[in-house]
Every structure is written in C-alpha cells, then in structure tokens.
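To close the section, here is one more complete example, presented without commentary so you can practise reading it yourself. The ligand is O2Y.
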Amino acid sequence: MGSTTTHAKLQQWVKEMADLCQPDSIYWCDGSKAEYDKFVKTLIDSGLAIKLNEKTRPGCVLFKSDASDVARVENRTYIAAKTQDAAGPTNNWMDPAILKEEMKALYKGCMKGRTMYVIPFSMGPIGSNIAKIGVELTDSEYVVINMHVMTRVGQKVLDVLGANGEYVPCMHSVGKPLAAGEKDNGKWPCAPIEKKYISHFPEERTIWSYGSGYGGNALLGKKCLALRIASVIARDEGWLAEHMLILGITNPKGEKKYVAAAFPSACGKTNLAMLIPTIPGWKVETIGDDIAWMKFGADGRLYAINPEAGFFGVAPGTSMDSNPNAMHSIEKNTIFTNVALTADKDVWWEGIGYNAPGKLIDWNGNEWEEGKSDKPAAHPNARFTAPANQCPAIAPEWENPAGVPISAILFGGRRPSTVPLVHQATSWNHGVFLGSIVGSEVTAAALDVKAGTVRRDPFAMLPFCGYHMGDYFAHWIKIGQKSTADKLPKIFFVNWFRKTKEGKWLWPGYGENSRVLKWVFERASGEGKAQESAIGYLPTEDAIDTAGLNVSAEDMKELLKINKAEWLTEIETIKEHYAKFGNRIPKELNDELAALVARLNK
Ligand code: O2Y
Ligand code: MN
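Output:
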C-alpha cells in the first residue's frame, strides 16, 4: 500500500536524492505486517534469504552477507564536522564539503536497477517527547525488514511529522547498481571496503552511508542516529544519548527501581539487560539492551527511554545458560545474519550450548562439520534481529513515552585485576570521572600490546560520540549541575571479571550479578552497607548477599581488595588517556584525578 506525506521539504529531499541515485522506482514504506511479509518473500524468492523451518523457527529467515561486509567499519566511519577540532582526536574527520563531493560521485546512479525505499521511522515510542524521527532512504530490502523490527516505521510516523516536523535525513545505498536485466542472484550486494563510507554531518544532523548493507553501517537509526547524531543533539538540548542498557529491578517488597549501564563490547550487556536473578524474591525486567536516551522530568529526575524496538544481538555465545531470555526472544519472527544452517533448516552457532546437529552449512555457504573445520561455523559477529516485545523479561512499561526514572547508572569493563567487584562514586562528578576511565584489559595477542594493557572506552562511547570526547565529558559535568544529588542517579563501577593471580575467575557472573544489583538497589535507597575507600564507597565484606553462593569470605575479600601499587599504575595510564584530550578535559575531572591520587597516597 505504501505511505504518503504532505511534508514538502521531505518530498523535495527524496526527489533530490532519487535524481542523484537514479532508482528504477520509489516506494514509501507503511510499516505494515503485510509489507514486512512481502519483502521477506521477495528476499527468499531472490535467493538472498533462506526461510527457516516453519515448525521450529516460525517466521524466521537467514541471511549470509558478503565476507567484506560483516561488522561496523570504524576506519570508514566519519564525523564530518565543520572543523577537525569539533570532531575531536578520537573520531575520523573529513572536511564535509570534500566528503560530500566524494560521496555524491559514488551515489550518482548507484540505485540503477533497484527501488529506493523511503523509511519514515521513530526512535522511541511514537509521540514521546524524548523520541526523534528519522527518514532513511535505502536500496536494500534487508535494511527495510530490519528497520521494521528495530524501529517504529510507517504512516504513523509521517502523521506525527505532519507538514513541517523535524526529521534526521539518513541516506543509504549498498553501492551496487544493477545493469539492465542483472539480478543479485542470491549474492549480498555491497561495495568494496575502500568505497564504504559511514558519514555523519553533525551540524546538519544528517547521515550518509554508502557501500555496506550490514548492521550499524546500514540500519541508520541505531548507532548513526541514536548515538552519533543524537549525542550532538543531546549536547545542544541538555539531555543524554548513551550507549546503555536499561533494566527494571524489583525487590521482594515489590519496590521497583531502574538502572542504566554502559560497558565496552564483550562485557555481556545484553545478558545483564535480560538477567534472571538467582536471589529469591527479586525480579529483573528489560527496557532496552543497547541505547538509552535520558531527559530531565519536571521533578528533576532523569527519565530514560529505549529508542529502539528490537534487539540486534550477537548470536555466538548466546545460549540457554548465558541468556535464556534472549534464546526465547529469537524463537520466532527473527532475522538471522551469518549464523550456520542445520540440515533441518534451523540455526546453530559456537556457544549455543549444544553440539552441532550433524553437518552444517557455515556462514560462508560451505559444508561444515564439528571438529573437522578449523574455522567457526558462524561468523563471530553473526547477529539476530528480534522484536523486543518477544523477550519474556520485557517490562510492561518498556514503551512508556514518559520513560522510566533512573536511580542508578553502572559503568564497567573487563578488568582481571585492580578494579573491585563494585564500588560507588561519592558524587556526580566522581561518577563522571568513573565513566571517563571505562575500559577493558586486552589480551596481548589481540592488539599486539603488553599483557594487561587497558583499552579505554570512556562511557563505552568512543566509537559513538558525534563530537569531541573532552566536550562530551564536560556535557556530563553540566548535566550534574542541572539537578540535585538526591534526584540524580547514583553512579557505580562494576567488574564481573576479576581473577586470582592464578587466573581463576573470582565471581560467577550471569544471574549471580543480581547480588551486586541488590547492593546497588539498596544504596540507591539510602541503605546498603558501605565503607569509604580511596576509590569510592566499597561494600563492606558482608554487604553483598552471598547466601547459597560458592564464593568464600576470602574470595569476597579479594573481590573487594584495593591494591595501592596497582592503583598507582592505573593512575599513570589514566593520565596517558586524559593527555589525548589535552586541555578539553574539564577541570572537574582533573580535580577528581588529583583527589584520587591524594587519597591513595594518604
Ligand atoms: O557490527 C555491527 O554492525 C553491529 S554493532 C552493535 C550491534 C548491536 C549492539 N551494539 C553494537 C555495538 O557495536 O556496540
Ligand atoms: Mn552497542
């Protein structure tokens, strides 16, 4: 059926882009189930998608991408602010005029033989005053169906936009025009790596993506709009666009609080968002697993929405042990990308929790047998795209347009040494300091660095901040000045990954992390036992509920230990990290660092 609009500026932009890209036709998406089903059928008929077993995976399809197009491409991602200084030292920068000329040359005729799809979408519940509207133009049906799941699409969005509403223009092409009569023939269309561009024009609040059909490069509502462009809008408008999960936690008395959390990749963010508590009487519910937009309410508290409508989760490692709620979320109506296919048309991946059922077809389309191939059957960044409302733990209020009031913010990383299981910031500014030093220890092999090196990923936003990271830190400081300590969320740093000197994990993780969430809940209620330390408030040795848990008092001591020598080394690496941002590190953070040094040396 399609959608219609009276928005003249939007119509004009679509026409301009169509004149440049020269598609065979233009289709305005209406977001209906019929539309989704029609595109899924087209994709199956064309050989790009495989329909999975209707009995075991109803409504599910599998895609295999090109080997050059399997993940976000950070070295091809640009923040094309007017000046390099505005983009900062951690973003790739290009002069916007030069970048546009380069990309216009690529866009010229790039949609020949294809349809240009116009996808009006809302990030956040439609009509929420925290939500934002985007319009993505794309020549990829794969993008259309993924956007259907990950965002709210269609006429209802155009109705809210009206004749003059504001939207973020999101231009996308896979960069593979078709000659007359040519077809994709089941081959994932994309451009070679050196022609891929994921470009952001922050002053214009515009996104131009070319050459990739995969994930964050192509589903432009997610990392491009909801983080890189939204972080700029949030800075200008006085709110926060963050790379954070949101969960609700309810205690046995039925009291509920909301927690947001930012971790670098590979720290189990989706697992924490969907955690099943092991402590009796406690409940955790999911609001979102990746992005939080937080605005002040009239009461001075920060209210968060999940701007997304689905999960774009990593499949490898997801199992009934690590994340049963994710496994249930993907039982039906799910788009799988780059996982392996079983003989009876189900999916399989490394870490799914059971052996491969016989011979498989791997993500490259080759026969694969467990123990016989040296390569994984699923790509390590293989994904599932699933509607959030299929998660058994989804909170009933997850789409509340007003958002949920955040009581606590967690930062964390993979830190085998130095950082305790949990500690609490003593003030908002101290919490911002903790966010600014987030990082994970990297294995020497992975990065060709000294063992124990910490790769800093402040606020888990390094690849996602659309402006100078030093100014981003300053924005967080300013947010803290807009309210009072009793109303602002309390800030914590967690580390599930501490090990003994012999390399044994000290903390079991997964559902047992609910014991740490319990302490966070108690602290946010003004309760919970804590002691002051050089690095902040630490739980007393008996404060974390370990009933029924195989963690000895000795282990708990080790988990909460502050080793002065390790922390003095940490300070040196924090100084190196801060030096990258020069004089843009806010005075408040330098003061926090100096105060930490003084407390350690006391
Ligand atoms: O590789 C991609 O394109 C996806 S990256 C991604 C997807 C979902 C949630 N988070 C991320 C991330 O890189 O943080
Ligand atoms: Mn993410």
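Once you have examined the tokens, check your reading against these statements. The radius of gyration is 24 Å. The chain has a mean pLDDT of 97.
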